[in-house]
Amino acid sequence: MNQYGPLPDPHEPLGREEAARAFADILDAKASEDEIAIFLVALSERGETSLEIAEAAKGLRQRLIPIEAPAGAIDVCGTGGDGHHTLNVSTAVSLVVAACGVPVAKHGNRAASSKAGAADTLEELGLDMERAGRLAEASLRDIGIAFLFAANHHPAMKRITPIRKRIGRRTIFNLMGPLANPAHVGRQLIGIARPDYAEPYADALEQLGTEAALVVSGEEGLDEISCAGATRLVPVGRLRMEHRITPEMVGIPSHPISAIRGGEAAHNAAALRRLLQGEHGPYRDAVLINAAAALQVAGHSPSWEAGIEEAGEVLDNGLANTLLDCWIAYS
């Protein structure tokens, strides 16, 4: 036993068995809060390996409360923490993609570093989060979309959350949300705010047996495909795509990130509703390019251009807006 008690020394990369045991002990409260904090900070300072990320995700997956999902369901989710405080792009993309006929099991939470997370904005729009959580499996089956509120599905994280707040910096658990979807989706569009982590993160997804995924990171540190510049793309599994894209390459205008700056939940909700009602502008362009990526990951669209066209159609004909209304009424 070393200075970290039951946890292994995190200053050197952990082997698979070491990592699996360490995260099992953390999630099962077999280590003290001080030991966990020291371990997580040291791991972050050294830089988490893809194996460690995968084993942490496996531990969380083994302890979550699952739901059944239709075949072909997808998640569109970012790791957050990019500091740009943009409007809720992945939430809007989820509605657009679901309106295109692809089931979306949207895994999310309330705001951590931003002013309004997916749950905050959807609640402001009228979605009853408690009821939507209880009916998630049914709404995913019946109308093709569900919000999987992380707090409802990850009881093991209840003890970890105050430790993370006490640490006050990013740890491996900031990467876990997209890797532990309660619907066990096999296809994902994942945004990560750290371009240097895109490759290890994609490798972790490979180790987890992901069917098809695309890890994206705007080169300015954005956890989605950027309309402000280039974005790094790392395809996973059976997906075959280019590894770098700019909006101009697919016919989308370029905009500064400030053009989609978000605010409090009421501000973001109003912007999302205007988007779904057909408003054009930078927010729409950001949603179109990200939706086109998600539709390709889902195997629904063969190209960026086809995905952008279909996403634009469901916005213009009101299908995405109607889906939101149906979801609110259902829940």
Automatic annotation (TrEMBL):
Please give a single GO biological process term from the UniProt record.
Answer: L-tryptophan biosynthetic process
Pfam families, A to Z: Glycos_trans_3N (PF02885), Glycos_transf_3 (PF00591)
Task: Read off the Gene3D superfamilies from this record.
Answer: Nucleoside phosphorylase/phosphoribosyltransferase catalytic domain (3.40.1030.10), Transferase, Pyrimidine Nucleoside Phosphorylase, Chain C (1.20.970.10)
Q: Which GO terms describe its molecular function?
A: anthranilate phosphoribosyltransferase activity; magnesium ion binding
- Top-level taxon of origin: Bacteria
Residues holding anthranilate 2: R164
> Which residue numbers delimit the Glycosyl transferase family domain?
73-320
UniProt keyword annotation of Magnesium present: yes
Q: Which UniProt keywords apply?
A: Amino-acid biosynthesis, Aromatic amino acid biosynthesis, Glycosyltransferase, Magnesium, Metal-binding, Transferase, Tryptophan biosynthesis
Which cofactors? Mg(2+)
This protein's pathway: Amino-acid biosynthesis; L-tryptophan biosynthesis; L-tryptophan from chorismate: step 2/5
Gene Ontology CC: cytosol
* Reactions listed under catalytic activity: N-(5-phospho-beta-D-ribosyl)anthranilate + diphosphate = 5-phospho-alpha-D-ribose 1-diphosphate + anthranilate
Residues bound to 5-phospho-alpha-D-ribose 1-diphosphate: 78, 81-82, 86, 88-91, 106-114, 118
The positions annotated for binding Mg(2+) 1 are S90, E224
The answer to whether UniProt assigns keyword Plastid to this entry is no
Q: What is its EC number?
A: 2.4.2.18
- Cofactor annotation remark: Binds 2 magnesium ions per monomer.
Q: Where does Mg(2+) 2 bind?
A: D223, E224
The record's function comment reads: Catalyzes the transfer of the phosphoribosyl group of 5-phosphorylribose-1-pyrophosphate (PRPP) to anthranilate to yield N-(5'-phosphoribosyl)-anthranilate (PRA).
Report the HAMAP family cross-referenced here: TrpD
Complex and partners? Homodimer.
Task: Write the protein's name.
Answer: Anthranilate phosphoribosyltransferase
